[in-house]
Design a protein that fits this description.
- Helix content is 30%, strand content 27%.
- By secondary structure, the protein is of the alpha/beta class.
- A 4-stranded mixed sheet has the order 24-25-1-26. The protein has a 4-stranded mixed sheet with strand order 2-17-19-18.
- It is globular and about 65 Å long.
- The structure holds ligand EPZ.
- The site of ligand EPZ has 25 residues, from helix 1, helix 5, helix 6 and helix 12.
Length: 420
């Protein structure tokens, strides 16, 4: 296993190009199972999660070629529709092959994904939505076994106790493209990644309206064809680099970043004193003073994204006062708190809320990565901590950020990847 050795204290300066969005690419790759003919997808990042999905699609009978950000997916053999536990447990997003397999092949066997470091991660809403479309769904030996001769369009409500579900919307919207008649999804997820998936499906010949809003209408068609598509920029990666610039009192220009996908984040950063100036194809982010504290609550899009909660917490550890962070999407998503405390942060957790009291500085220490975004928060902390920070189990980071240490070092950071 690799670890990062980070020497803190360098200001980040320069330009970074943001990759295509992992959380758009994954459901889009799964939706390629619906196509007759090849799909050519560009701006697909080289990440562990993308490789995991490519391997799964290979087992499901698709050929997947991926080089220099460009991916070609073509289904060759539809005889195996079983997504095994071995694969799904390593990458929960595998669940989004369920809807496409069911709609295209009339059957699917997908392992229940189980939980992860940020929470229980149930899929009850996915199953409720697919049952509403007429699928028979049973659980057998930890697998979801789904069957449907032909799905039938209907009006369905997809909201749950924590609001909308991103991958649940992806599964139901993808399945409805080949259903008979009209489907209306109420309380659909509004994330840009869902809009991007709908754009891809419509390019394949689907008839989807309203993606990106809480009500999505899908008129079923007989078949879908392969098509080209470019994946949207990764707003979470962009937000992570914005925090890195702010933390180190640097000045970083982001290119291939969609500020309109980050308005809640930009609003919060400006509120605490970070300069965010729109520029051609992205933004220039800088800060030159101690930051103000703030209160933030994670919400479904367009609210503040849960995937940037840990990174913002790192920033607020050095603000001039008390901040309150409330996690409404994954109430247990605080694995980064214990590690930040090891680095001298002052954070008190009360259920789904963390009270962060700003300190003068963080001190480098050996810390443990646990999940993708918590690990990113620890890298950010290491950039600004006094002395050296060692981050163990960086495979968590490689799942969602391509060559992050090389790209941060190109901006002036001092990070070494060391094989253990
Ligand atoms: C997607 O996960 C993202 N993953 C997550 O990013 C992101 O944190 C999450 O959406 C929320 O924005 C991908 O897109 C691959 P949800 P998803 O269904 O779809 C509850 C990252 O770091 N829920 O929107 O699995 C659930 O427990 C990852 O890139 C149910 O109760 O999340 C949670 O509290 C981490 N029943 C809330 O809804 C269900 O059937 C939102 O979950 C489904 C979800």
């Amino acid at each position: 296993m690799d670890k990062f050795v980070i020497r803190g204290g360098n200001r980040l300066k320069g330009q970074v190009a943001i990759d295509g969005a992992k959380n758009a690419a994954l459901p889009i790759m799964a939706a390629a199972l619906l196509a007759e003919g090849p799909c050519d997808i560009s701006r697909v990042p080289a990440l562990a999660d993308i490789t995991a999905m490519s391997d799964l699609l290979g087992e499901l009978g698709a050929s997947v070629e991926h080089a220099d950000g460009r991916m070609r997916i073509e289904v060759r053999d539809e005889s195996n529709s079983h997504a095994q536990y071995e694969r799904v447990r390593k990458m929960r997003a595998s669940i989004c092959v369920l809807g496409p397999l069911l709609a295209k092949r009339g059957q699917a066997r997908v392992s229940m994904p189980g939980g992860c470091a940020i929470g229980a991660r149930p899929v009850d809403l996915h199953l409720r939505g697919l049952r509403a479309l007429g699928a028979q769904i049973e659980l057998d030996n930890g697998d979801i076994v789904a069957k449907a001769r032909r799905l039938r369009g209907t009006s369905l409500f997809l909201g749950g106790p924590f609001g909308s579900t991103v991958l649940g919307t992806a599964n139901v919207m993808s399945a409805a493209t080949l259903a008979e008649g009209r489907t209306v999804i109420e309380s659909a997820a509004c994330e840009p990644e869902i809009e991007d998936l709908a754009d891809f499906l419509n390019a394949m010949g689907a008839k989807i309206r309203g993606a990106g809003t809480p009500r999505v209408t899908i008129d079923g068609v007989e078949k879908l064809a392969g098509c080209p598509h470019e994946v949207i920029p990764d707003r979470i990666e962009a937000g992570t680099f914005m925090v890195a610039a702010a933390l180190t009192n640097g000045e970083v220009t982001l290119t291939n970043a969609r500020l309109d996908h980050l308005m809640a984040v930009v609003d919060k950063l400006r509120e605490i004193g970070v300069n965010v100036e729109p520029s051609a194809g992205g933004a220039v982010v800088s800060s030159a003073r101690r930051l103000e504290p703030t209160d933030v609550t994670t919400q479904p899009y367009p609210g503040f994204p849960t995937d940037l909660q840990a990174q913002l917490m790192t920033l607020l550890c050095l603000a001039d006062g008390n901040s309150v962070i409330t996690e409404k999407i994954f109430p247990d998503r605080f694995m980064h708190v214990a590690e930040l405390l090891r680095m001298g942060a002052d954070i008190r957790k009360e259920g789904p809320t963390a009270i962060v009291t700003g300190v003068r500085r963080l001190i480098g220490a050996p810390v443990m990565a646990s999940d993708l975004r918590a690990s990113a928060a620890l890298v950010l902390a290491g950039l600004v901590a006094r002395g050296t920070t060692e981050i163990l189990r960086v495979y968590h980071i490689d799942r969602g950020y391509e060559r992050i240490e090389q790209r941060l070092n190109a901006l002036g950071a001092d990070i070494q990847r060391v094989s253990e």
